Every structure is written in structure tokens, then in C-alpha cells.
Amino acid sequence: MNEESVINKSVTVLPGVAEKVQHKLNSLNIYTVGDLLFHLPLRYEDHTKIVSAKNASPDIMVNICGKLVYTNSKFTKKGPMTECIIQEQDGTEVELIFWNLYPNQQRNLIKGKIVLAFGAITSNFNRNYVMAHPAFKLYDSYKDIEMPSELTPIYPQTNGLTSDKISKLVNYSLKLIEDESPEELLPTEVCPVSLVDALKFVHHPPVDSDLEQLGNAQTEAQQRLIIEELTAQTVAVLQSKIKNASQRAYPLSSEHLLQKTLISNLPFKPTAAQLKVIKEINADLEKNTPMMRLLQGDVGSGKTLVAAVSSLAAIEKGFQVALMAPTEILAEQHFLKISKLFEPLGIEVAYLNGKQKAKERRSELEKISSGTAMFAIGTHALFQEQVVFKNLALVIIDEQHRFGVEQRLRLLEKGAVNNKLPHQLVMTATPIPRTLAMTSYADLAVSTIDELPPGRKPVTTTLLTHQQKNKLLERIRHVCVEQKWQVYWVCSLIEKSEALEDCAAAEEVAQELASELQELKIGLIHGRLSQEEKQSVMEEFKLGKINLLVATTVIEVGVDVPNANIIIIENPERLGLAQLHQLRGRVGRGQKQSFCILFCKNKISEESRHRLEFLKNNHDGLKIAEEDLNIRGPGEYMGTKQTGVSSMKIANFIRDQHLIDKANNIARNIIENAPEQSIKLIRRWLNTNDQLSNA
Ligand code: ADP
Ligand code: MG
Questions:
Q1: 48 CB-near residues (< 8 Å, 6+ apart)
Q2: Distance between CA 178 and CA 172 in Å, rounded?
Q3: Are 223 and 217 in contact (CB under 8 A)?
Q4: Nearest listed ligand to the Cα of residue 564
Q5: Pocket test for ligand 1, best of 262, 301, 304 (most atoms within 8 A of CB)
Q6: In this predicted structure, which of 66-70, 278-282, 376-380, 442-446 has the lowest mean pLDDT?
Q7: What DSSP string runs through 363-408?
Q8: Strand 445-449 and strand 423-428: pairing?
Q9: Distance between CA 679 and CA 93 in Å, rounded?
């Protein structure tokens, strides 16, 4: 075996990195020398030359230099201020203004000293040159000034670890890999620049580099690093796919008699899109390798039916199916719906939730372990130790963006019995944009329901401000009383659903609305209610006993009450677009026209307005998801930092989209022709504690 590359060694091999510094580096997610080398500058400053104030373009950071001819300090409302005037060698005078200087800095500003100041010339009216709070150095004579010959990198820093200190550590690391000259893992045609040269370039670009090109990661060196990282990511996921293909699962080929019966019992016809994806799933289930399929379909496209029908392929062959939902409310709803569908077929459904009484829970567990129940529904509770399946062959995960990649992989292990993995179907209403699908989700086959059941009308979306509240209340009163419509009122304070503040806000809003709309029955649901309370509120709402349901974002996913036609979302500017689209999907489930009211503060930023207008004008979940990804980046978009997606060091899924196909090709080539390289690539680029690298 080769000796471990310095890239994978701990930062503690660097001089000056003891516990304290190590800790600070760790807080920047830097653990190894490699992490440090891939910790790239945010921007660069040009300290290579001195310009004359006369020639400095306004607002561009430059170095100027001159002899200190005047200094004066005084106290102002904004704090202590020091004014200096320096005289450049050609006689031009420049005023330097400093705020809150340290006493020793102030003491050193002595007339006659040579000042090298770095900042922007902010005003040059009447040849009056001013530079506000520049960084500065003092010299005794012009001869003593030494300028660097390269651009100066400015690093993302953390408290107590300055850009300068990081730069020193990076330079040491650069020296270490230069001595080692690590192996090139990609073919030279793809990477004309060596890894070492590329890293040296990005940390110390030469003076004549195009700063704009650098800023957009367009230089050859940056592109080379990006392509290697994207390739490594793709290799990792593809490997997990290969590993999966070597696993065994129960092949479930059946006559599909149960499926036919269930479909003929429905009060409606499945859409062509639903039938198409059922076929795709059935074909996967017949194989003796585990299915890993992502089912994406916009809100309301009827994924639950697809899940129920697909399950019957397993049940008909005598195997069990587990359906996992992200929230109790949703699990409950699936339980009610699917039990109803399965009852005529004589299939028993077990239901587990976190708050069940011991006796009830025991009985459900018994049904699962004995196989009396062929179908089990629950939240994460389904995959706890005590739950033992008799013969689980298919796991269905609903609304998967709530679960990270890591959980997804762990779940698979849990299902393994007799060396057989269960088939896996992951359902999501938040489609995975192509860029992610090709990299972080490349191990999943994708089915798409690209059609809504007939008769659905797009939800009419309107922006209203708090100023228009009375008008809004009037309208709600009217439709609830006259037309027996039902309304959701969603409070969101912060993004994390079920957060305490949200619950408190919801309580307050419910009280307020109850006094403002006395003719209506107002309900309230949030994460702090007990399971029974939530259940009974939802039940009353479904039965039409509640006119207006105040909720936190707990209702975000999956809840289905066809008579609810209006959803009001308070403070929509705080939520992501994909999440808003999900919320909006709570209405528009029946035949009537429905409405989504984005109820904003009186003043919102231009940017927020722009985002909300986008939502108003778009109804395609995929387009909305892509816009969201554009604006907020993958970590935010996926709702978890654990996705393995956000752990990218240099590449950026949006900016670097154009390289993804290329990386995909290289990755496939490596796996086929140089499998030993793939392990090294994963070691180099993926966090060692990342699930994927263990796959
Ligand atoms: P989602 O894909 O968002 O999970 P659901 O499965 O909750 O959607 O379905 C939304 C609603 O559409 C449910 O009330 C369901 O019964 C109904 N539905 C599903 N498929 C059809 C269909 N083919 N025709 C009419 N209604 C359907
Ligand atoms: Mg659903």
C-alpha cells in the first residue's frame, strides 16, 4: 500500500496547529490538510503595486503611498476619529480617515512616516482625495517598502483565525503537496493542469490574472478542480448504485390480480401517468436486485394511489410492505386512506406512531411480526429496534426531501433480512432538479407522474399585504358562511417547522381570528399538540366542523382535505419557494377553483417580491424547485445539511451545471476502466465521515 497522502492527514501535521487552532479550523469544516487546500479564497486583493490617488478609479481597492504631513484626532458622535493627510511623491495630498483606532496605532501615526494605505478613494471632487478607514502599514523610508508579487488571497475566516493565519497554513500545506506531488487521478486530457499547479494558482493567482474570470471560477485551474470534484461525487453515488446491484431482493412477479381489483374499485380512473409509473415499478419489482426508484410527482398528482397499488405486487406474493411518512399527521392520513382501499381486499394494515399506548403498540407490533398485517404505516417509529417484520420486501418513503441521503442509506440496512434487501420506492413532491439527479441522486432510477388528475384547476395565487387584512377577513367570512368553503391559515415565523415560536404565533393568530370572525369555528393545529389532539382537530376539519384551520407549517406535506379551497400563508417571504408550493398544494384538490393568498408584511424587499411573483405565475413544481435551488443553493433547498450535496468544496451545482455531463462521462469511464482510481477520488474529495464514501 502507498503511504497515506498528505492530503488525507490531519491539520495537526502543520506547524502551529495545536488544539486551539485545530478546533477553530474544525469549526470551518477543515479537518485535513486537503480540507485546508480546498478552502478557497473568497476574493483576492491586489497589493502588488502602488497607484497614485489621481489615477485610482473610484471604489476600487488600491494601495497608495505617501509621507504623513498632518494628523489630528477628535471625538465625534460616531466615536474617536483620526484624520491624516499624506503627501504622495508627486505632491498630491490624500486625506485618510480612521475610526476607532487602537491607541498604539494612533501613537505610531507620526508626521514624517511613510504610510502605505489600502482602500478605496471615495471622493475626488476638486482633487480632494479621501480614503476612509484603509488598512495601513508605516515605514521610515520608501526604500523599506516590499510589495508581494502575487495577488493576496482573502479567506473565509472564523473568530480568532484571520485570513492571514489561514494563508500561512495554506502556504505550508501547498509546500507539503508540492514535495509529495500527489498522483493525478483524472486523465491529462481532462486535466491539463496538475492538481498542485491548480491549487497554487487558486491560492496565489499571478498579478495579471483576470479578476472577473477568477470570481466566476472560469479559469483553467478552477475548472480543473471543479471537474475533479464533480467526478468524485458522481463516482461515489454510482458506486453505491453498483453495490446495490450486487445485492439481492425478493423478485415479486405476480399476476397483479389484487392491483386490478383495487383499480376497478376506485371511484375514478387512474391517470395515464399513474398507470405508466405503476408499470415501471412493477417491472423493477420483478427483478432479484433491489429497486431504488424515486417517484416524483407534483402535489396532488396522486402518489398515494401509486404507492398502494405498487404494494399489492408484494402483498400478492405474500410479502410485507412498509410505508414511512415524515410526520404523524401524514402517517395517520395514509393509514386511514390505505386501510379504506385495502379493506375490501381483506388486507390488514398496521399503524405505528410514537405516542401510542403500550398495549395498542404491542398489538400492532404483533401484527407486523406475525405477518397478520401485510402493510405497515408509520413515521421513523417504523424502523426502531423493536419492530420486527415477518418478511418485508418493499419499503416506501413518502416526501423524501425530509429525509437526507444518509437516512435513506441507513434505512436500507435496517430492512435487510436473510441477505435480501427490500425494494425501495422514494416519493417526493419536490422534484430533484436535473443537476442533483445526475450527481447526488444518480443511484436512483426516476419515475415521474407528469399529469394531474383531470379537472384540477391551477390555484389562483394572490399577494396581499397586512393593510388589506379587513378585506381578506370579509371575503373569508363570506365564502365560509355562504358557500361552506374551508380555509387554511398558515403561520410561519421561521423556517423550521414545528418550532416553538411558530406554535406560539399560531396560538395568538387563532385567538385573534376567533374574535374577528365570530361566526366561524376556528381550529388550531401545531407541533406541540399531542397526537390525539392533532388527530381530533384534523378529523373535525375533514368533517367540515371547523371552518378555518390555523396551522403552522406542519401541514406542509401531504394533507388532503378536498373541501378546503383557500390557503392563506402569513409571512410567505420567510419560506422557500418549494415549501410554499407544497403549502399551496394543500388546496386545489377538489373540482372547485381554489385560492392561495400570500399574506405579506406591508413592506417586503424587492427580492422577496420577485420570488413571490415567480410563485404566483408558475405552477410547475419542477420549475419552482429549480428556481429555489438557484436562489438558495442545494443545502437549503434539500432542507438538510446532511444530504452529502452541500459538502462540495469547490463545485457549485448551479454555477457549474455545464460541467455535469462531462463529469458524469469521466466518472463512468473511471468506474469501468480504472476502478482503483475511484476509491482514491472518493478519499480525496468526500468527507471521510460521509455515508457515501463508505458505500
Ligand atoms: P400527492 O401526490 O400530493 O400525494 P395524493 O395521493 O394525496 O397526492 O392525491 C391527491 C388527491 O387526488 C387524493 O384525494 C386522491 O384520492 C385523488 N386522486 C388520486 N388519483 C386520482 C385520479 N386518477 N383521479 C382523480 N383523483 C385522484
Ligand atoms: Mg402525498
A1: 147, 148, 149, 150, 151, 207
A2: 10
A3: yes
A4: 1
A5: 304
A6: 442-446
A7: HHHHHHHHTSEEEEEESGGGGSTT---SSEEEEEEESGGGS-HHHH
A8: unpaired
A9: 61
Give the pLDDT band of residue 240 (cuts 50, 70, 90): confident
Give the position, in ligand 1's atom list, of the atom nearest the Cα of 274: 23
Question: What are 190's three cell numbers?
Answer: 481532462
Average pLDDT of every residue of the chain: 85
Ligand 1 atom nearest 271 alpha carbon? 23
- Identify the nearest ligand to the CA of 303 by its number: 1
- State the Cα–Cα distance between residues 151 and 214, nearest whole angstrom: 11
Average pLDDT over residues 334-340: 92
**Residues 567 and 582 sit within 8 Å (Cβ to Cβ):** no
Distance from residue 549's CA to the centre of ligand 2 (Å) = 20
| Nearest partner of 84 among 99, 69, 102, judged by Cα | 69
Nearest ligand atom owner, CA of 295: 1
- The whole-angstrom separation of Cα 621 and Cα 616 is 12
**Cβ-based burial of 296 (10 A; exposed 0-12, middle 13-18, buried ≥19):** buried
**Is residue 316 within 8 Å of residue 286, measured between CB atoms?**
no
Confidence of residue 326 (pLDDT cuts 50, 70, 90): confident
Q: How much distance in Å is there from the Cα of 147 to the middle of ligand 2?
A: 63
CA distance 270 to 367: 31
Closest residue CA from atom 23 of ligand 1:
270
Show the cell assigned to 587: 388546496
> Taking CB atoms and a 6 Å cutoff, what residues make up the pocket around ligand 1?
268, 270-271, 274, 297, 299-305, 429, 453, 558, 560, 562, 589
Residue nearest to atom 5 of ligand 1 (CA): 302
Residue type, 54: K
C-alpha 303 – ligand 2 centre gap (Å): 6
Ligand 2 centre distance from Cα of residue 403 (Å): 15
Strands (E), 200-257: none
Number of the ligand closest to the Cα of 301: 1
For residue 380, what are the contacts with CB-CB under 8 A and spacing of at least 6? 324
**Cell numbers for 406:** 444518509
Protein residue with least CA distance to atom 18, ligand 1: 302
Ligand 1 atom closest to the CA of 305, numbered from 1: 6
The separation between the first and the last C-alpha atoms of the chain, rounded to the nearest angstrom, is 21
Beta strands 373-378 and 292-297: pairing type?
Answer: unpaired
Length of the chain: 695
**Is 425:395 a contact under the CB 8 Å cutoff?**
yes
How far apart are the C-alpha atoms of 510 and 628, rounded to whole Å? 30
User: Residue 335 has what pLDDT?
Assistant: 92
Cell of 238: 454510482
Task: Cell numbers for 615, please give them.
Answer: 410563485
Q: Which residues contact 528 (CB under 8 A, 6 or more apart)?
A: 498, 500, 503
Number of CB atoms found within 10 A of residue 547's CB: 22
